[in-house]
From TrEMBL, chain A:
Domain ABC transmembrane type-1: 82-262
Record GO cellular component, one term: plasma membrane
Pfam family, one: BPD_transp_1
Biased composition range(s): Basic and acidic residues: 9-20
Swiss-Prot/TrEMBL keywords: Cell membrane, Membrane, Transmembrane, Transmembrane helix, Transport
Assigned protein family: Belongs to the binding-protein-dependent transport system permease family.
Entry's localization field: Cell membrane
Protein name from the UniProt record: ABC transporter permease
Function, as annotated: Probably part of an ABC transporter complex. Probably responsible for the translocation of the substrate across the membrane.
Residue numbers spanned by region Disordered: 1-22
UniProt membrane topology term: Multi-pass membrane protein
Domain of life assignment: Bacteria
GO biological process, one term: alkanesulfonate transmembrane transport
Automatic annotation (TrEMBL), chain B:
Keyword field contains Transport: yes
PROSITE patterns on file: ABC_TRANSPORTER_1, ABC_TRANSPORTER_2
Domain of life: Bacteria
Lineage: Bacteria, Pseudomonadati, Pseudomonadota, Alphaproteobacteria, Hyphomicrobiales
Protein name as catalogued: Nitrate/sulfonate/bicarbonate ABC transporter ATP-binding protein
Species name: Tardiphaga robiniae
Length: 282, 259
């Protein structure tokens, strides 16, 4: 104890400096690590085309993809496609999350409901979701409703499974604490079950969102006149690889951003977690 | 007063865990229950806590039948079982949700000071040591002022030093409101430091085997010859309960290895 207190005064400013630069490293450099690889690859390809090593016709260099994005943005078209796709994902994700959460919670909480409901849901899950497309078009038409329905189906299953699994694996010992304090049913749900399932729920939401982005492309392939998926098809039919790559890039950015938003919103709620974080806090 | 009348428990898988256990425990008494592994001590405590139902017999507190958790009864488990998403202060206040916020805060602050963890009020449970976590669990159980507090091997996961510390602490807290304490333990010393009466159980099926009045003055001196004499009595009873024959002159050390 006293030994550590007697560090020579001279060394102290230096260690403080080091810990400050350390913190700066954690704040900025660590996330920056994630973009090193894509940037290097992009730069390498740019150089390869620029030096004439490849003509870049089928795989246009980043500069041309960027130019295409700017062009689409200037004409206002890009914005229209992005909002269309985003609103489809939002509607489908919202619908899928609400139904998945409700049914998952019911199946997790009531044994009878689980025995009644779960086999059917599992059987439906075994159907490749794209197989629903023809049926949805017949039932719901080729416009927005069928697209939103398809996305919702994609989001539903991971959320349903995540919620049900999380409820079923809540620690009995923690539930007993609630019982000894005589919590009523709703209080037990609010004060014990909800917080206990939250970490797994966040994971389910993120998986669901990923599938939502996957299915919006499928939905927009089946006849759309706008949206990022339409840009893909359009680029293919008109032989414009730069447009395809532009759409793909925007998909990547939007997907990452929305996922990051979920993370951002839920991190403060999960600070209590005693989790294994290899390589330090992120 | 807590009255157990011929309490029995047969688990659904047919295990006869408890048979005709009867005892009367006046308000404010400290009772230690001791016995070999699997003799139904946890089963008994869970039944009194209302977490499981006894198959036969009755458990009454002040003439009220216990078949579900009751506000007059608190329980502390072997693990602290703190809720990981609540701060230490919120864990302690968990059973006080009916109280207005200000009153709750005050009680929690008092309890935190009482268990010496005021500086940890805002900490997460994961940031506590085992002994600190168990102290929070004790505070959480005591803060609603139960008339009966059940403890199922509450200190068995702690080192000997921390255990002694918490035993003293528990006695201190007990003196505040003098609830009835029923303490399951494997540690004869612990039983004799804390309890007014020791109940020895025997297994297969779990039954009450012997009852020993401790009758030592408080605070108890572990080194006194009287303490040693009672300890010998308890250890002999334990050995008998496990059908081991022990010569009366056996030194306490060898008898001590009873489990
Ligand atoms: N949930 C259960 N289902 C079936 N049998 C059980 C259950 N819990 C306990 N038992 C059985 O009941 C008997 C008594 O168990 P109990 O946990 O009450 O013992 P104990 O005295 O607390 O033992 P220990 O000192 O090891 O904690 C044991 O034979 C055990 O196998
Ligand atoms: Mg036990």
């Amino acid at each position: 104890m006293t030994m550590t207190l007697e560090t020579p005064a001279l060394e102290r400013p230096e260690t403080r400096d080091r810990s400050a630069s350390n913190r700066r490293w954690q704040r900025f450099a660590r996330p920056a690590l994630g973009v090193v690889l894509p940037l290097t690859l992009a730069l390498a390809w740019e150089l390869a085309v620029w030096s004439g090593w490849s003509n870049g016709r089928l795989v246009p260099p980043p500069s041309r993809v960027f130019a295409t994005i700017m062009e689409l943005a200037r004409s206002g078209e890009l914005w229209r496609h992005i909002t269309t796709t985003l609103s489809r994902v939002a509607a489908g994700f919202g619908l899928g999350v609400v139904t998945g959460t409700l049914l998952g919670a019911i199946s997790g909480y009531w044994g009878i409901a689980r025995r009644l409901l779960d086999p059917t849901v599992q059987a439906l899950r075994a159907i490749p979701s794209i197989a629903w497309v023809p049926l949805f078009i017949l039932w719901l038409g080729i416009f927005e409703t069928s697209k939103v329905a398809l996305i919702a189906v994609g989001v539903f299953f991971p959320v349903y499974l995540g919620v049900m699994g999380a409820i079923l694996s809540v620690d009995r010992k923690i539930v007993e604490v609630g019982r000894t304090f005589r919590l009523s049913g709703p209080a037990m749900i609010r004060r014990i079950l909800l917080p206990a399932v939250l970490p797994a729920y966040v994971v389910a939401l993120r998986v669901g969102l990923g599938l939502g982005w996957m299915f919006v492309v499928a939905a927009e392939f089946m006849g759309a006149s706008e949206g990022l998926g339409y840009l893909l098809i359009d680029g293919q039919q008109l032989g414009k690889p730069a447009q395809i790559l532009a759409a793909i890039t925007i998909f990547a950015l939007l997907g990452k951003t929305t996922d990051w938003l979920i993370e951002l919103i839920t991190t403060p709620l999960l600070r209590w977690q005693d989790a294994f974080r290899p390589g330090g806090e992120t | 007063m807590l009255a157990l009348d011929k309490v029995g428990k047969i688990y659904p898988n047919g295990v006869h865990a408890l048979e005709r256990f009867s005892a009367t425990i006046p308000q404010g008494e400290i009772v230690a229950i001791i016995g070999g592994s699997g003799c139904g001590k946890s089963t008994l405590l869970r039944a009194v806590a209302g977490l499981d139902r006894a198959s036969t017999g009755s458990i009454r507190i002040d003439n009220i039948d216990i078949s579900a958790p009751h506000e007059k009864i608190g329980i502390i488990f072997q693990e602290p079982r703190l809720l990981p998403w609540l701060s230490v202060a919120d864990n302690i206040g968990f059973g006080l949700s009916e109280l207005p916020a200000a009153a709750r805060r005050e009680k929690v602050a008092q309890a935190l000071a009482r268990v010496g963890l005021s500086d940890k009020a805002k900490a997460w449970p994961r940031e506590l040591s085992g002994g600190q976590a168990q102290r929070v669990a004790i505070a959480r159980a005591l803060v609603p002022q139960p008339e009966v507090l059940l403890l199922d091997e509450p200190f068995s996961a702690l080192d000997a030093f921390t255990r002694r510390d918490l035993q003293d602490h528990l006695l201190d807290l007990w003196a505040d409101t003098r609830p009835t304490l029923i303490l399951v333990t494997h540690d004869v010393d612990e039983a004799l430091v804390l309890a007014d009466r020791v109940l020895v159980m025997r297994p297969r099926p779990g039954r009450l085997f012997a009852e020993i009045d401790v009758g030592l003055a408080r605070p108890r001196d572990r080194a006194s010859p009287l303490f040693d004499a009672v300890k010998r009595r308890v250890l002999t009873a334990l050995d008998r309960s496990l059908d081991r024959d022990v010569p009366d002159s056996a030194p306490a050390e060898t008898v001590g290895a009873w489990w």
